[in-house]
Design a protein that fits this description.
Radius of gyration: 26 Å
Bound molecules: 2-deoxy-2-amino glucitol-6-phosphate
Oligomer: single chain
Helix content: 25-40%
Number of strands: 27
Largest sheet: 8 strands, antiparallel
Strand order of the largest sheet: 3-2-4-1-10-9-11-15
Shape: globular
C-alpha cells in the first residue's frame, strides 16, 4: 500500500525524504510528495507518477528545512494524479498529513466539514482528516487545542477505518505526530538526536538499524529532542527498540536489472537460510524455535485452517496437501478476505496458520484476528521480521528469506513451501503419523533443494529463448495435478501480474470440464508433469490438449525421455520428493514470466495497479 517517511534532525530533510520514498516505492507508485516546514510555512512538493518525477520537481523548485514528511501513493480513493497526491493541506494550509489506509466514514465527515465552510481540493478520503485536525485545533474545546498531538488524538476519535499517519503543523512547529491503526508504522532511532518515521525499515536502514514498531492504537511525537510514544487515554508507553538484522545491500538490486530477477537468483541461498539450523536428518525431524512450547497443543490439534492471499494462498494450498497427505491432519486453506466475513466455523482445537510475506496484509491480519477471537491457536508463517502478524500470533516460523522488494513474490513463495513442509514433518513426527524413515526422506530431499534450484537457474538463457517465442501470446493456460495444481496457479499469477497477459491455472483434470474449449494453436499451455504419483494421469491430460492442437510447454523430470516426443517444449527439473516438486517446478515458471514481461517492456518490479503489501481491505 502507500509508503510514509518522515525525518527530524540536523540534515537537510528533502534529500532524506526522497531517498526514503525510493526505498518504499514498491508499496505504491501512483504519485508522491513531501512537505517541509520552513519559517512558519509548509512547503509542499507533489507530483503524479514515480518518485523520479517528484525528484525532478524538487530540483526545479528546491525546498530547505530540517524536518518534514513524505508519501508514495497506491490509489484507493481518487484517481492517480497530482491533485490527489499526498501530503494534503488543511483549509488554511497550516496542517499537513500523509496517510496509509482507508477512512471509511470520509464521506460523512466531508459533508459535515463542508457545512462548516471547509473547501476540499482532492477526491481523497485522507484530505478529510487534515481538515478535521485543523477544525478541532482551532475551534475545539479543552485539550484539543493544547497541542498538535492532542488535536490529532481528538480528530482520530471521529475516524472509522485504518491509518498510518504523519502530521506536521506551523501552529505547533518543530514536531511530527504519528499514529497507527491497521497500517504499519515505525520510528527509526538515529544518532545525534536524528529520528525517522516510516512504513517499513527499508526507508531508514541507510541511517539506522534501531527501530521501534508501533502497535495499533499507538501515537508518537517526534521532536529534535527525541520521541515519546503514548496511547490515548493511557499516556506514555514504552516500546522496545528492535535491531533490524538485514543490511542495505539487501534492499539494493546488486547489479541485477530488476529486484525480481535478483530474488529469483537468490533462491538457493534463501532456501538454505530458511532451513538453517532447523533440519534434524538422523531423527527424520525438524527443530522450529518459533514453535517451542507448542508440542502439546499441536499434538491435540483437531484441524488446521490456513489463511492467505495471492501467492501466500497458493503456498497455503500446497500446505493443505502436505498436512493431509503426510501429517494426516484435516486441513482447509481459506482466502483470508472471504474467511473474515463468511462466518466460518472454528471449532476448539483449531490451529490457524496465517501465511504472509509482508506480515501486514490486511485481509490476512483480520482473518487471523477472527480465527483467534473464535478460539483458534495462531501460528504465523511470515518473512518480514517485526511486522504486525507475527506480533499478534501465538507462535510462528519466520522464512528468513531477507527483504523481498519485487512486487511479484518469488523467493518468499519457495521458502513458504519449505516452511510448510517443515511444519508438516514436525506435526507428523509429533503426532506419530509420520515415521522416522519417511521423515528422514523428506528432510534429505529438503536439504538437496538449494543445489537443485541452482541447477535450474542455469537454464535462464534457454527459458529466455522460450519467452521470446511466446511474448506476444494473448492468453496462457497452466495445468498441474496434485501438489502441482497450486504450482500451476502460482505460475499463472506470476505471468498475469507482471506481463498483463491473461493466464489461468487449473487442475489438469478439471480442464475437460470447460477450459478445454479454449484450446487451439494460439493457446500456449504450460503443463507441470514431473514423474510423481499422478504422472500417468497428467500424460492423458497432455494428450487431450494435443488432440485439440494446443501448444504445450511441459515442466518434466530430468530423466523423462517420453514427453519431449509429445509436447512442443520441455523444461527439465531434478527429481525430488513428490511433495517438494512444486518448489522446483515454480522456479522456471518465475523465469518464464519474468522474461516475457521484460520482452514486453513491462515494469517488472512495479507492475501497474499493484503494491507489495496490501494493507487495506
Ligand atoms: C504475489 O506476487 C503478489 N504480490 C500478491 O499476490 C501477494 O502474494 C499477496 O498480496 C499476499 O501478500 P503477503 O504474502 O505479503 O501477505
Amino acid at each position: 500500500m502507500c509508503g510514509i517517511v518522515g525525518y527530524i534532525g540536523e540534515q537537510q530533510v528533502a534529500p532524506l525524504l526522497i531517498q526514503g520514498l525510493k526505498r518504499l516505492e514498491y508499496r505504491g507508485y501512483d504519485s508522491a510528495g513531501i512537505v517541509v516546514s520552513k519559517n512558519g510555512h509548509l512547503e509542499v512538493r507533489k507530483e503524479a507518477g514515480k518518485i523520479a518525477e517528484l525528484e525532478k520537481l524538487i530540483q526545479a523548485e528546491p525546498v530547505e528545512g530540517w524536518y518534514g514528511i513524505g508519501h508514495t501513493r497506491w490509489a484507493t480513493h481518487g484517481p492517480p494524479n497530482t491533485r490527489n497526491a499526498h501530503p494534503h493541506l488543511s483549509e488554511k494550509g497550516d496542517f499537513a498529513v500523509v496517510h496509509n489506509g482507508i477512512i471509511e466514514n470520509a464521506g460523512t465527515l466531508r459533508k459535515l466539514l463542508q457545512e462548516r465552510g471547509h473547501v476540499f481540493t482532492s477526491d481523497t478520503d485522507t484530505e478529510v482528516l487534515v481538515h478535521l485536525i485543523e477544525e478541532v485545533y482551532t475551534t475545539g474545546e479543552g485539550r484539543a487545542t493544547e497541542s498538535l498531538e492532542r488535536a490529532v488524538e481528538t480528530a482520530l476519535t471521529q475516524i472509522e477505518g485504518t491509518y498510518g499517519i504523519a502530521v506536521v503543523s506551523t501552529r505547533d512547529p518543530g514536531k511530527i505526530v504519528v499514529a497507527r491503526l491497521g497500517s504499519p508504522l515505525l520510528i527509526g532511532v538515529g544518532e545525534n538526536g536524528e529520528t525517522f518515521v516510516a512504513s517499513d525499515a527499508a526507508a531508514v536502514i541507510a541511517h539506522t538499524r534501531d527501530v521501534i514498531y508501533l502497535n495499533d492504537g499507538d501515537m508518537a511525537t517526534i521532536t529534535k529532542g527525541g520521541y515519546t510514544v503514548h496511547r490515548p487515554k493511557h499516556g506514555p508507553v514504552d516500546r522496545p527498540i528492535n535491531r533490524v538484522d538485514w543490511d542495505l545491500s539487501e534492499v539494493e538490486r546488486g547489479g541485477y536489472d530488476h529486484f525480481m530477477l535478483k530474488e529469483i537468483m537468490e533462491q538457493p541461498e534463501t532456501l538454505r537460510e530458511t532451513m538453517r539450523g532447523r533440519l534434524l536428518e538422523e531423527e527424520g525431524g525438524v527443530k522450529l524455535g518459533g514453535l517451542q512450547g507448542m508440542d502439546e497443543e499441536l499434538r491435540q490439534a483437531q484441524r488446521v485452517v490456513i489463511l492467505g492471499c495471492g501467492t501466500s494462498w497458493h503456498s497455503g494450498v500446497i500446505g493443505e496437501y502436505l498436512l493431509e497427505d503426510l501429517a494426516r491432519i484435516p486441513c482447509e486453506v481459506e482466502y483470508a478476505s472471504e474467511f473474515r466475513y463468511r462466518r466460518a466455523v472454528v471449532e476448539p482445537g483449531t490451529i490457524a496458520i496465517p501465511i504472509s510475506q509482508s506480515g501486514e496484509t490486511a485481509d490476512t491480519l483480520w482473518a487471523m484476528r477472527e480465527a483467534k477471537q473464535q478460539g483458534a491457536t495462531t501460528l504465523g508463517i511470515v518473512n518480514a521480521v517485526g511486522s504486525t502478524i507475527p506480533r499478534e500470533t501465538d507462535a510462528g516460523v519466520y522464512l528468513h528469506a531477507g527483504p523481498e522488494i519485487g512486487v511479484a513474490s518469488t523467493k518468499a513463495f519457495t521458502s513458504q513451501v519449505v516452511v510448510l513442509a517443515m511444519i508438516t514433518v514436525h506435526l507428523g513426527r509429533l503426532r506419530g503419523t509420520l515415521t522416522q524413515s519417511r521423515g528422514r526422506e523428506i528432510v534429505r530431499a529438503l536439504k538437496q533443494l538449494p543445489e537443485q534450484v541452482a541447477e535450474i537457474l542455469k537454464m535462464d538463457d534457454e527459458i529466455k529463448k522460450l519467452a521470446e517465442q511466446y511474448k506476444d501470446s494473448k492468453n496462457f493456460l497452466y495445468l498441474g495435478r496434485g501438489y502441482n495444481f497450486p504450482a500451476a496457479l502460482e505460475g499463472a499469477l506470476k505471468l498475469k501480474e507482471i506481463s498483463y497477459i491473461h493466464a489461468e491455472g487449473y487442475p489438469a483434470a478439471e480442464m475437460k470440464h470447460g477450459p478445454i474449449a479454449l484450446i487451439d494453436e494460439n493457446m500456449p499451455v504450460v503443463v507441470i508433469a514431473p514423474k510423481d504419483a499422478v504422472y500417468d494421469k497428467v500424460r492423458s491430460n497432455i494428450d487431450e490438449v494435443k488432440a485439440r492442437g494446443g501448444c504445450i510447454i511441459a515442466v518434466v523430470s530430468q530423466d523423462d525421455d517420453e514427453l519431449e516426443k509429445v509436447v512442443d517444449h520441455v523444461i527439465r527439473i531434478p527429481r525430488t520428493h513428490d511433495a517438494l516438486t512444486p518448489i522446483l517446478a515454480s522456479v522456471p515458471l518465475q523465469l518464464l514470466a519474468y522474461h516475457i514481461a521484460v520482452l514486453r517492456g513491462a515494469n517488472v518490479d512495479q507492475p501497474r495497479n499493484l503494491a507489495k503489501s496490501v494493507t487495506v481491505e
